[in-house]
Design brief:
single chain; mainly beta; 2 domains; 24 strands; eight-stranded antiparallel sheet; 3 helices; nine-stranded antiparallel sheet; Jelly Rolls; elongated
Amino acid sequence: MYYSNYTISNTVILLIINYHNEKFYLTFILNYIIILDIIMKKLLILLTLPLLGLFSHASHAVVAGGIVAINHQWPFNGQYTKMSFFQQINQDGGTKSHYYWANQFFFKGGDGAYIGLQNRSGGVKAVNYSIWGASSWKSGKCNNFGHEGTGVQCELIYPWAVGHAYRLDVSKNGNIVTGTVTDLNDNKSTQIAQIEVPSTYGKLYASSGFVEEYSQGNQQLPTCYTMGAENAVFKNPIADNTVVARQTTYTYGACNDPYIVEASCNTSSCQNTINDLKNIPSPFAPSIAVTNGQEITQDQLKTALSGENLIVIQMQDGKWSPKVSFPSASSLPWKSITIDQKAGYNTTLYMNNTTVQVAKGQNVTYTSISGVWKKVN
């Protein structure tokens, strides 16, 4: 079954109607609110990871960011000392991808946290574990962060394997919260870190999940259609080894296109897939109208790109333009133009004080990088 996008207002209305029959209603509402509240926090923490090398100015068009969200529905008023999350990554996007398969969890009377598998530059595999509001740790490779809140972020360079199932445990004992990863193929467990939280932090009571592609800076993606192929299974989480949460999922974000991303759940797990379209835009990509035999002008493209990161010009017999004049790249930083040429005649592109011929069957994308239109596929 495929779960389409929800809005907070629609979800609240739905759950209030079912108030007397659905004991999970409050946690379900909270998960939507929490996801929105934590998006900026998690992106800022990712910037602190020492191995990413992503601090230079953006030079391409898209930060994909969050793509898939997974809601967990726990029994109303449940509070726990342990939560276990289950992940199996079947496709990881390849060595140029930066995916984070995360599980968020929250403390009664405290702040939020997350734990999950990552792939990083050059094929490095890791586990990321962070808690907001924490200030110290007892073990692990950790550091303090101070952007949009404060907390402790820990990492474990860990060679997790595609196709293996993993369990990620967080256990609270007093003020110490321990993160552990277990490869379920051999049941070998590895401690990630022990983080100390304030005494005001109570038990674990809510959670959710997400998948994001966090490539930034010089490694940023030219378009949404260049994301590496990804497939992941999130099995239903378990609290205190006995209580099983239900899950729903939806897709969202800058690259939310049904040709790019799919997500669905059954009674025991949620699965998501991101398709590598090889920089071929989907039919849902924004496009510009083509009048047969007439030039597409700089002003037309500049206007179209004012509200979009990418515009597709689809050519075919009866809808063919002999000339496309690109606007100045410096006036439209990090924007992209795709020419999908299916007409029987060539089209001449005017850009960078030169011309380029696009023949039948070609699909080319140009991105404005450092004041110049550059071919990116």
